[in-house]
Design goal:
This protein is α+β, with helices and mostly antiparallel strands. It contains 15 helices and nine strands. The longest helix has 20 residues.
Length: 401
């Protein structure tokens, strides 16, 4: 049982600094140790109108005096945040649970994976005790942390983790759990632009020639046009109009939480119609013949189902996105071509179209980008665009003289 005694000047020099009306009390615990407590009057309950108080305890009188003065000032200014015992790990999990229903499955998985080292570094700490120096230490820790494959962690991934933490802490402020965001002014690591690898038109032609006899040649032609991996694998035969030579991008197949989710495009620009080359149309006809019409594994009635996926394996089942990437790597090696990533085929399509003089707005429409993002990403593909524009303008001026 603890013993409560009103403090007096004999208990330390901090007594004289107490503000008028202090409710500070000296508490002697069973083991003889001393604690200091005060009661704080809060705004009445908004629903019942009942009086509310909060009792706070500190190890030293000085801490209690300073905390009482600070708390009373914050209550008066209506900026006081009531203490909670929530840890950083608990809040980050709560934040994810609250928002997961509005996130795409792949986004939720990405966030969860990115926050794993953040929770490992900061998780046990009380959320309201989190300070900027703790976040700074976490950033330095993440910079030294190796990846799952043992490689060096990129500055981009560390900056991404810091950005997610900052967003989650902003949400805690909105919920009146924090007064300020300790991650707000922590500087993210400097990110170096990732060097983009692209093929020449000759290399693309060599790749398409190499896969020409395969049953999935239509999918590789779609990749060469600039469709994303998930868009190629999510395409159904009802999305393909071979007579009009175009495909309609309406859904995507994306890895999420160990499974593959079928999701709609992120933006209105992502939901688009993409024209096909005559070669791509012919390739898709061959794919349809080999994987669907001539496939003895698929029942006759099922072959008439327009919702069947275009890119499937020999059993007629969907292909996992990572498998599509592995097959691309194997084809590149077998064809003796310079190695690039599967996603670099999309970069290749954009770069070649821009270099051929296709307007950025048209290229952006094919890729499902905004023109602004396209120009920022592929500015390297237009090194002489300004000079060409000025020369053309000068020619028009001369013609008008």
């Amino acid at each position: 049982m603890s013993i409560l005694t009103h403090s007096s000047a004999e208990h330390g020099g901090a007594s004289a600094k107490r503000q008028r009306g202090s409710s500070l009390q000296r508490v002697v615990l069973k083991n003889g140790s001393v604690r200091w407590r005060f009661r704080l009057d809060l705004a009445p309950d908004t629903k019942t109108g009942k009086r509310r108080q909060r009792t706070l305890t500190f190890a030293t009188e000085r801490e209690a005096v300073e905390a009482q003065a600070r708390a009373r000032s914050e209550v008066h200014a209506d900026t006081y945040i009531e203490p909670v015992r929530v840890t950083v790990a608990e809040w980050l999990q709560t934040w994810q649970d609250i928002n997961a229903r509005t996130w795409r499955p792949a986004t939720a998985q990405s966030y969860r994976h990115t926050l794993v080292p953040v929770i490992a570094a900061l998780g046990p700490r009380r959320l309201q005790e989190l300070r900027r120096e703790h976040v700074e230490t976490m950033v330095r820790h993440l910079e030294r942390l190796p990846t799952r494959t043992g490689g060096k962690r990129s500055a981009r991934s560390t900056a991404y983790a810091l950005r997610l933490l900052t967003t989650a802490l902003d949400a805690a402020i909105a919920e009146d759990i924090l007064k300020r965001n300790p991650a707000k002014h922590v500087k993210a690591p400097t990110q170096r632009a990732q060097e983009m690898q692209t093929w020449t038109a000759t290399e693309v032609r060599a790749f398409l020639d190499h896969v020409a006899d395969g049953p999935l040649v239509g999918g590789w032609h779609l990749t060469a046009v600039g469709l994303r991996r998930g868009e190629v694998l999510g395409l159904r035969w009802c999305d393909v109009d071979l007579d009009a030579a175009e495909v309609h991008v309406r859904q995507s197949r994306t890895p999420a939480f160990g499974e593959v989710a079928v999701v709609e495009p992120k933006t209105k620009r992502g939901r688009r119609t993409v024209p096909l080359t005559p070669e791509a149309v012919a390739a898709l006809r061959r794919t349809r013949q080999q994987t669907l019409l001539d496939n003895p594994v698929i029942p006759f009635q099922a072959k008439r189902d327009a919702n069947r996926l275009v890119i499937v394996n020999q059993a007629g089942d969907p292909i996992h996105p990572s498998t599509w990437g592995h097959w691309f790597d194997r084809h590149v090696e077998a064809a003796g071509l310079r190695r690039i990533r599967l996603h670099d085929m999309r970069h290749t399509a954009a770069t070649l179209m821009l270099q051929a003089g296709i307007t950025p707005v048209v290229v952006a429409g094919i890729l499902g980008h905004s023109p602004a993002v396209l120009l920022t990403t592929y500015a390297h593909a237009l090194p002489n665009a300004k000079r060409d524009a000025v020369d053309l303008l000068a020619a028009m001026y001369r013609a008008g003289s």
